[in-house]
Amino acid sequence: MDFLAPYHPLIVHTPVALIIVSVLFEIAGLATDSAWMRKTSNALLVLGVLGGIVAILSGEPASEIAEKRQGIPESRIDWHGDAGKIATWLGGGAIVARVAAATIPGGRAAIAVVAFLLQLCSAMAVGVAGYRGGQLVFTHGAGVHVDGALVRSAHAEAESEPDSSAH
């Protein structure tokens, strides 16, 4: 899905916003016993996880550009991508748990608690992924163009050499 790489910065805002807001709706729905808020939470979570899948698909080719053409250390890129994948998996797990809570008789409360905890962890992980993505852009220049050309990371050579200041 190389054609998605240029759109990665646009796409990633979908899971970040929707998964985090889904938790807020879930908390509000629990606090007010509002069924529509909890249903909205579920819809936002599903859309956020789908957005996470597209973000992962667009991030893989974008990471190749950042690493190979801009010299951004692979470890920094992987650090960001792994957090996004974890967030998406946790969100998917929350969806499965919600479906199980709605369809399996008995133990619904326990399954609902697990679903909420997975959803909350997904929101935290997607927040971390977003923060790390911001670091890639603002610290390393990932995807940044100047006069139509990709900038080379100032950290490319510094992070590939052993840190002499640690001795």
Please characterize this protein's 3D structure.
Helix 3 (35-69) packs antiparallel against helix 4 (74-103). This protein has 167 residues and is mainly α. It has one domain (2-166). The chain is elongated. A two-stranded antiparallel ribbon has the order 1-2. The protein is built from six helices and two strands, in the order αααααββα. The protein has helices at 8-11, 13-32, 35-69, 74-103, 108-138, 156-160; strands at 145-146, 149-150. Strand 1 (145-146) and strand 2 form a beta hairpin.
Concise structural overview:
The chain has 167 residues and is mainly alpha-helical. The chain has helices spanning 8-11, 13-32, 35-69, 74-103, 108-138, 156-160, and strands at residues 145-146, 149-150.
What labels would you give this structure?
2% strand; single chain; 75% helix; two-stranded antiparallel sheet; mainly alpha
Reconstruct the topology from this structure:
Layout: H1 8-11, H2 13-32, H3 35-69, H4 74-103, H5 108-138, E1 145-146, E2 149-150, H6 156-160
Antiparallel strand pairs: 1-2
Helix pairs in contact: 2-3, 2-5, 3-4, 4-5
Number of strands: 2
Estimate what percentage of residues fall within beta strands: under 5%
Number of helices: 6
Q: What is the CA-based Rg, rounded?
A: 19 Å
Low-pLDDT regions: 160-167
Domain module tally: 1
Q: Determine the oligomeric state from the structure.
A: single chain
The helix fraction, in percent, is over 70%
Structural class: mainly alpha
H/E element sequence:
HHHHHEEH
**Order of strands across the widest beta sheet?**
1-2
Shape: elongated
Mean pLDDT across every amino acid position: 91
